[in-house]
Write a structure and sequence with these properties.
By secondary structure, the chain is α/β, with parallel strands linked by helices. The chain has eight helices and seven strands; from the N terminus they run αααββαββαβαααββ. It has helices spanning about 5-15, 15-25, 30-35, 70-85, 120-130, 150-160, 165, 175-180, and strands spanning about 45, 65-70, 90-95, 105-115, 135-145, 185-190, 200-205. Strands 3-2-1-4-5-7-6 form a seven-stranded mixed β-sheet. Helix 4 links the parallel strand 2 and strand 3 (about 90-95).
Length: about 210
């Protein structure tokens, strides 16, 4: 799956993302991620902010920047921030997670909900996330990770052939992702809705 395929997918999804994916994925994963961000004060970067579904959950004393590869999705996020008076949202930018323009150690907290299985080069993306996180900073992923055994694993392997059409990798592997980083695993919650298919992972950049 390449970057253009991702852009095409989210150009299609943008007009119906809120009505479809908020129902499909639910909001529990986003709320849990925001709750972790809200445990501390600092600069927050939401990677793959999309239409901004997580933005209302952050504390108002945060300084939140959101990025996304899709201009169409970001336009929806800007409309949400303006409509709901989300003054803690400082900036919403079109950026590629694999080549972030922020200086090193710019953010205290990084949130990426339903993103990592979408990016074309997850190892480069994780290196960039680590680069822009301050020492001691928190990184939170909400994502689907592939099963190792059983019927679900077989289904995911079969679906992986259609990753470009789907716009995400059904067989996304957590252990493989973590090979390229020195980030430390602090917590993992599996079994998030829908159908227990998603996980929340909390990482820490060594300080």
């Amino acid at each position: 799956m390449d970057l253009n395929a991702v852009k095409r997918s989210y150009r299609r999804y943008a007009p119906v993302y809120d009505s479809t994916f908020r129902w499909l994925l639910g909001q529990k994963g986003r709320r849990l991620a925001a709750d972790i961000a809200n445990e501390r004060t600092g600069r927050v970067l939401e990677v793959g902010v999309g239409t901004g579904l997580t933005l209302p959950f952050y504390r108002r004393d945060h300084d939140v920047t959101g990025i996304d590869i899709s201009p169409e999705m970001l336009e929806k996020a800007r409309e949400r921030a303006d409509r709901d008076g989300l003054t803690h949202v400082r900036d919403l930018q079109v950026q590629d997670i694999n080549a972030l323009t922020f200086p090193d150690e710019s953010f205290d907290i990084i949130i990426a909900a339903y993103v990592m299985s979408v990016v074309p080069d997850v190892h480069q993306a994780l290196r960039e996330i680590e680069r822009v996180t301050r020492p001691g900073g928190t990184i939170v992923f909400v994502n689907h990770f592939k099963s190792k055994v059983g019927a679900r694993a077989a289904i995911e392997r079969g679906m992986s052939r259609f990753a470009s059409q789907l716009g995400w990798h059904p067989d996304f592997d957590f252990d493989d992702m973590m090979k390229s980083t020195s980030l430390e695993l602090e917590d993992r919650q599996d079994g998030l809705p829908p159908l227990g298919l998603f996980s929340l992972v909390k990482l820490r950049k060594p300080g």
